[in-house]
Design goal:
Blueprint lengths: L6 H4 L29 E7 L3 H4 L3 H11 L4 E7 L3 H10 L17 E5 L6 H11 L14 E5 L15 E3 L4 H16 L5 H11 L3 E2 L4 E2 L2 E2 L2 E2 L3 E2 L8 E2 L27 E4 L1 E2 L9 H5 L4 E2 L2 H15 L3 E5 L9 H11 L6 E3 L10 H7 L8 E6 L3 H7 L5 H13 L4 E8 L6 H22 L5 E8 L16 H15 L3 H4 L2 E5 L3 H11 L5 H9 L13 H12 L6 H4 L15 E2 L4 H12 L17 H5 L19
Parallel strand pairs: 1-2, 1-3, 3-4, 4-5, 11-21, 12-15, 15-16, 17-18, 18-19, 19-20
Antiparallel strand pairs: 5-6, 7-10, 8-9, 13-14
The structure holds iron/sulfur cluster.
The site of iron/sulfur cluster (SF4) has 11 residues, from helix 22.
């Protein structure tokens, strides 16, 4: 049955809301397919505002992969701002896609990509606006299957009541397999209804359907989570796409209509990271390292620029300077685009993988505006704890060379609230920044150089060695940051060249609850949403008090609390809510690495050393995939 666009009802509301252009769709490289001639229809959601959601690579890739299939349709939907939400409720306009402005409730599947847990209240908002029951148990065959993906899906227990399923790991191949199963089930006349299609998805071993797993407690503690039916595996494994060159997406990047967080095209140059930073969930859950080839990258840059007209290319990964052929890649691209408006950037680089030759190649067509590094910890001691093996001498050498080569601005990222951290570890951030300015003045012979330090609150994450760690309470984090600010300003002659940016510790505690929570935390999320919680990643919308009150009201009658989920240290024998979700990492290896952290022992990168048995490659049937290929960029198209 045909589905009508809701645009005629939406359009009169748009002059009354902020940034109406974000709701109209029609971006360059977007697609609207015919509803009636397609069999499987996906709505893909990024649960944040358009300006954050549109550049999201995960959604962009799946959108294109799915729309390439003739009988499949995929459209995008984002969280609507509270001003439009109020008008949509008043006028009965449902959650819609920005492509065909079709009601999200009419699709077969709603795939939601969570980069952060702070998007959970926006999921509930979208479900409710779409007319989809909040609780998966209340849905019928007429409602979409709600699937969670993204990094937060590695512990979907806090949203287990609201999603039908979760997919761990890479999505490219997973969405095709899910599409095949849904297509076959629909063509067979939907035998067994919703229960049967969810069972078929769960049977693959790579789709987690929470309702098929019983969750019980002994006192406050979680019992092992076990399946409650035969056809369902005891553990659910993550997906890993091995040959990135076979998946050169996005081929035609979406070009935003409204201002967005990234006004550039991104090309993912490799996936995974084995540096082993113990705080880094992204690095742990995306192992092993899989590099895209030089030719593959060169081709994607060429075709993507041609299709989009962007003037900047970000070479994306978790630590881009770590690509084994990064020098050839940047030189090849800088040669190819010499004298044009096309600029290159490496959005994330490590101090120890960076050098000035690389920086010079990157800035050949652009301004030497700023360099960004993430030492993460202020003292050598805390950097050993977190396994961020970069020395202060390395950093000073690198930034001195940068200032000597014409850069005027260096940004340094740190975390506060790390396991075992003391005031002194944090105060050493000030000493490091002051040393950077002194060394920079000496190297450049100028006084007007700047260093900005940016500090975020640490949140222990599932599937990392810090999953057992007590989270630092916000009062301690805030007190340390105040002391740090005083230390930075203690030497006025240098302090005025140092900028300091930080957030208070409270949102991190809520993120901690949502990251390491179990199914009991779902009640808190629902209460916060019902009491007006929206856009929790935005300081102007986030209410700490609302979360604290909801946690007290919902958790304490169950014998647990906000502290129980956050500032409490876990024991080795404790069942963790994600133990039945397999990231490939061996739990004993993670525990041993946690013990190594406490005794300040570092661990090497397995890319360049023999395997140290984290468990991923044998359990997932994967391997590290790195160069050198010994080949150069092809084709070296003159521009
Ligand atoms: S199994 Fe070995 S080679 Fe593979 S990611 Fe883990 S440590 Fe590295």
């Amino acid at each position: 049955m045909s589905v009508e666009s809701v645009f005629p009802q939406l359009e009169p509301l748009l002059p009354r809301v902020s940034k109406p252009v974000q709701y109209v769709g029609g971006e360059l490289n977007s697609t609207v397919k015919d509803w009636d001639t397609t069999t499987v229809r996906w709505a893909l959601m990024y649960p944040d505002a358009y300006e954050v959601g549109l550049p999201n690579q995960g959604v962009m890739i799946l959108y294109e992969v799915l729309n390439e299939l003739a009988d499949v349709l995929a459209e995008r939907t984002y969280a609507v701002w509270p001003d439009l939400e109020a008008l949509m409720r008043e006028h009965g306009v449902p959650q819609f896609t920005v492509d065909g402005h079709r009601p999200v409730g009419a699709f077969d599947l709603l795939g939601v990509s969570f980069s952060t847990e702070l998007g959970y209240t926006n999921l509930l908002g979208a479900l409710d606006l779409a007319g989809i029951p909040l609780h998966a148990a209340d849905r019928t065959e007429d409602h979409p299957i709600v699937l969670a993906g993204g990094h937060a899906a590695f512990n979907p227990e806090p949203i287990a009541d609201f999603v039908d399923a979760a997919v761990l790991g890479d999505g490219e191949e997973a969405v095709l397999e899910i599409t095949d199963l849904v297509r076959a089930w629909k063509q067979e006349g939907r035998p067994g209804g919703r229960d049967e299609i969810l069972t078929r998805l769960a049977e693959t071993g790579g789709v987690y359907v929470p309702r098929f797993y019983d969750v019980t407690y002994t006192g406050a503690a979680l019992d092992p989570v076990v399946p409650n039916r035969d056809r369902v595996p005891a553990t659910v494994a993550k997906r890993t796409t091995m040959d990135l060159d076979a998946w050169p997406y996005p081929k035609k990047p979406l070009v935003p209509l409204a201002e967005s967080v990234h006004e550039r095209m991104s090309v993912e140059i490799f996936r995974g990271c084995t540096r082993g930073c113990r705080f880094c969930q992204a690095g742990m859950i995306t192992r092993p390292v899989r590099e895209r080839s030089i030719q593959g990258i060169g081709d994607m840059v060429h075709k993507g620029l041609e299709a989009s007209g962007f003037e900047e290319v970000g070479l994306l990964s978790l630590s881009s300077a770590d690509h084994s052929e990064i020098a050839e890649i940047t030189k090849g691209l800088a040669d190819r685009y010499e004298g044009t408006n096309t600029g290159l950037s490496l959005p994330s680089t490590r101090v120890d993988a960076f050098n000035i030759d690389l920086a010079n190649e990157l800035s050949r067509n652009g301004r030497r505006s700023g360099l960004t590094f993430a030492p993460e910890g202020g003292s050598e001691r805390i950097r050993r704890v977190i396994n961020k093996t970069v020395s202060e001498a390395d950093l000073i050498r690198t930034v001195s060379a940068a200032y000597a080569n014409g850069w005027r601005q260096v940004k340094l990222y740190f975390m506060c609230g790390l396991p075992t951290e003391t005031d002194d570890d944090v105060l050493q951030i000030a000493a490091m920044a002051q040393e950077v300015i002194r060394a920079g003045r000496k190297a450049s012979g100028r006084k007007d150089i700047r260093c900005t330090i940016s500090i975020g609150g640490f949140v222990p994450k599932p599937h990392t060695p810090f999953q057992w760690a007590p989270q630092c309470d916000p009062d301690t984090v805030d007190a340390r940051l105040r002391k740090l600010r005083d230390a930075v300003n203690s030497d006025r002659g240098i302090g005025r060249n140092i900028g300091m940016r930080y957030h208070d510790g409270k949102p991190s505690l809520v993120e901690g609850l949502l990251s390491r929570g179990d199914r009991r935390v779902g009640r808190v999320i629902e209460r916060v949403w019902r009491e007006g919680g929206r856009f929790d990643g935005w300081s102007e919308h986030f209410s700490y008090e609302r979360w604290i009150e909801a946690a007290a009201n919902e958790l304490e009658p169950l014998g647990v609390s906000l502290d129980w989920f956050t500032t409490r240290e876990r024991t080795e024998d404790e069942v963790l809510p994600w133990d039945h979700l397999d990231s490939g990492l061996d739990k004993q290896w993670l525990w041993d690495d946690w013990q190594d952290a406490l005794s300040e022992q570092e661990l090497d990168d397995c890319r360049w050393t023999p395997c140290f048995d984290c468990g991923v490659c044998p359990s997932m049937g994967t391997d590290i995939e790195i160069g050198p290929t010994g080949r150069k960029l092809l084709p070296l198209t003159p521009v």
